[in-house]
């Protein structure tokens, strides 16, 4: 079997399905468990840090883990960054069969920090054939620590930071990834897309350009998006997508070129006749409260734990790729649209309140990226490059 620790609403599970694989998810959040059930994913509702490994001994082929990132994310308080020495100590101790988590937890500034070390308990006890892990970029030093331990156990291991847009996800989401196997040599998945696209050559057909937000959502020549704001929302039937309080901010942002408004399939700024940029760009990273119905000509800064997306031109403040930049230039999207931008199927059955749905979507592993990472870990063929074709309801 394949175990999926901190399984969330099913990002890894959905990606595995494209490879013909099925996992069992361990997840605590009730809404995420309900979403998994609606999608047909097997789930054990439990606290991963307290659940015993013994029932799975000798039965696990693959182990997946995406520990909660809130403690480590620079979009939040980032107390997990200050707890790093304790987390590294927990990984070291668990790798040597010593469970010092209770004592170390008492010293942590954020109780969630130690969850990043939790996969080592499962790795030590179960020794799966292959491993795949995902987290925010600031967890990369911890992944390197885990990879070194796995190599000492006879695994081939790779870890680094991947951009989801390089694998067909219509979003520039950067994540730390660890891949390991004790039966094959592993390497990072080969990108299927590139930022500017590649011309065919003697070495191959070339990679297509990043999938834009407009392509993913199916916005075409008949979809008219106006900066005129009403309180409703939507992009059909003359309804406008922006809340009333954002009217002047959006107009100001458009005038100074911060956001580029597109109203045609060529993805050109409103009123432009140029056709030099036919595809647009991926959406910015979506987290649990992200929003937006602007189609960007270039990616925005990384979205943090807020309902705002900073306009292009504001560099992320941290190497981790996440910023707490506060901007008045806010935009919103529906849950279905956010899910498509995470590469979930447009008809995925999200459960729970609106807030819980956005939380699940924003915290999930993009299924398309998950499929590529799992393919690299298992040796199965990776998904073929193809533009996202989803249209949000």
Automatic annotation (TrEMBL):
Keywords carried by this UniProt record: Methyltransferase, Restriction system, S-adenosyl-L-methionine, Transferase
InterPro entries xrefs: C5-Methyltransferase, C5_MeTfrase, SAM-dependent_MTases_sf
Pfam families: DNA_methylase
SUPFAM superfamilies to which the protein is assigned, alphabetical: S-adenosyl-L-methionine-dependent methyltransferases (SSF53335)
Residues annotated as the enzyme's active site: 69
GO BP, sorted A to Z: methylation
Chain positions covered by the region annotation Disordered: 265-291, 307-329
Composition bias, Polar residues: 265-278
GO molecular function: DNA (cytosine-5-)-methyltransferase activity
EC number: 2.1.1.37
Family named by the database record: Belongs to the class I-like SAM-binding methyltransferase superfamily. C5-methyltransferase family.
Protein name per its UniProtKB record: DNA (cytosine-5-)-methyltransferase
Species whose genome carries this gene: Streptomyces desertarenae
